[in-house]
Specification:
Blueprint (H helix, E strand, L loop, with lengths): L2 H15 L3 H4 L7 E3 L11 E4 L3 E9 L4 E10 L27 E6 L6 E9 L7 E11 L4 E11 L2
Parallel strand pairs: 2-8
Antiparallel strand pairs: 1-3, 3-6, 4-5, 4-7, 7-8
């Protein structure tokens, strides 16, 4: 083997084995959805009347940078599960939806934030099926890691 070929081989091996500072600085941690320091809402098994307002209040944190979050509300008339809570709510008998409520909203978190307090109101329509629903929170950081929190809520017709 020529000296030049040996040098190139060693250089390639050295480059393949070394890690750059970019590798060490990669975000490898999921963001967190928390109620720490606040009264989080909605909470599991909480009931809301048709036409009422759901106050959404949670804390989002990440070790590097938050990205966005999504709120999705859909019926749970078939008793499916997303299993993020150990608490089981009392459920109505399974039923077929007639006018189910579907809510889906994405929201960007301002750039550079590692902490974000999400607080806003969601109005429950008056003309939707009452019953069991899932309130899903999906939090994504800038690196693409995602945390999911699923809360079971009930819509009631007073």
């Amino acid at each position: 083997m020529k000296r030049k070929d040996l040098f190139l081989l060693l250089l390639c091996a050295l480059c393949a084995c070394s890690s750059s500072s970019d590798d060490r600085s990669k975000d490898m941690t999921m963001p967190e959805i928390s109620g720490k320091g606040i009264i989080p809402t909605p909470e599991n098994c909480q009931a809301f009347g048709l036409g009422d307002t759901i106050r959404f209040h949670y804390i989002f944190t990440d070790d590097r940078e938050l990205g966005s979050f999504n709120i999705e509300i859909h019926n749970n008339f078939d008793h499916h599960t997303h299993s993020t809570s150990a608490v089981e709510c009392i459920m109505e008998p399974a039923k077929q939806p007639v006018r189910p409520w579907v809510y889906n909203k994405d929201q960007r978190i301002p750039k550079g934030q590692r902490f974000h307090e999400a607080l806003f109101d969601i109005v429950v329509p008056k003309d939707v099926d009452p019953g069991d629903y899932h309130f899903m929170i999906r939090l994504t950081d800038q690196a693409g890691w995602q945390q999911l929190k699923s809360v079971s809520i009930k819509l009631v017709d007073f």
